Amino acid sequence: MSVTWEELGWERLAAGVGRCRLPGWDCTAGLVVGEGTALLVDAGSSLAEGVRLRARAEELAGGRVTHLALTHPHFDHVFGAAVFAGAEVYRAVGLDAVFAFERAELRLDAVRNGLPVADADEAVDALVTPRHLVSGEWTLDLGGGRQALLANVGPGHTAHDLAVLIPGSPEVVFCGDLVEESGEPQAGPDAVPARWPDALDRLLALGGEDAVYVPGHGAAVDAAFVRRQRDELAARFGVI
């Protein structure tokens, strides 16, 4: 007997599409199930969390995770990526340079935010540069009529923000930390505040008025929420 999304702690958003909120930093991971395929959106904050995430995702999908999309290069979204061996990994252009040259900064940020030093060291040592670079839009065929559109909509929260649109009824947009519901959007040293409102305009154009928007942290929201957050960010950063 197959288990349900809810029994494994996931929220079902549409047919074959769901997300879970990971403990610790309330980070969202998304799952899209195709025909003999499974796309995971973001990978958790450590190798151990990645292992747990993969086990639950593959139980729901009935097979292995075949694709992984990383929305941006912050530890709570990428440090579990190395456990998805064999998956095709996608990220915005430029994230490869972060993994190659800014590992010390990634590690320090993780430790400052409470990840144990040993877990941070293990994850940084295991980081592998993702294979597929998304500079504009990239459509994945997941089989069974299921598609996923990967869109490089940044910069904003970081210089390398990737969104994932799943067509359907409703359409679902995984936003990464361009949108946050559980608190004010965080603008660290790698944010590009002047471009952030434009990135949210691109998200809204991508999903439309009736889509479900999935923030990097917090509950799923609607287009009106994203629009309000866009206006708040524009006022906060003095962007016309």
Task: Describe what you observe in this structure.
This protein is an alpha/beta fold and 240 residues long. Helix 4 runs antiparallel to helix 5 (117-126) and helix 6 packs antiparallel against helix 7. The strands form two sheets. It has a seven-stranded mixed sheet with strand order 1-2-3-4-5-6-7, with helices on one face. It has a five-stranded mixed sheet with strand order 8-9-10-11-12, covered by helices on one side. The mean pLDDT is 96. It has one domain: 4-Layer Sandwich (Metallo-beta-lactamase, Chain A), CATH 3.60.15. The longest helix is centred in the N-terminal third of the chain and has 15 residues, at 47-61. It has helices spanning 47-61, 75-78, 95-101, 103-112, 117-126, 196-207, 223-237, and strands spanning 11-14, 17-21, 28-33, 38-41, 67-69, 88-92, 132-134, 137-143, 146-152, 162-166, 172-180, 212-217. The chain is globular. The protein has seven helices and twelve strands.
Key structural traits:
240 residues, alpha/beta, Metallo-beta-lactamase, Chain A, 7-stranded mixed beta sheet, 5-stranded mixed beta sheet, 12 strands, 30% helix, 27% strand, globular
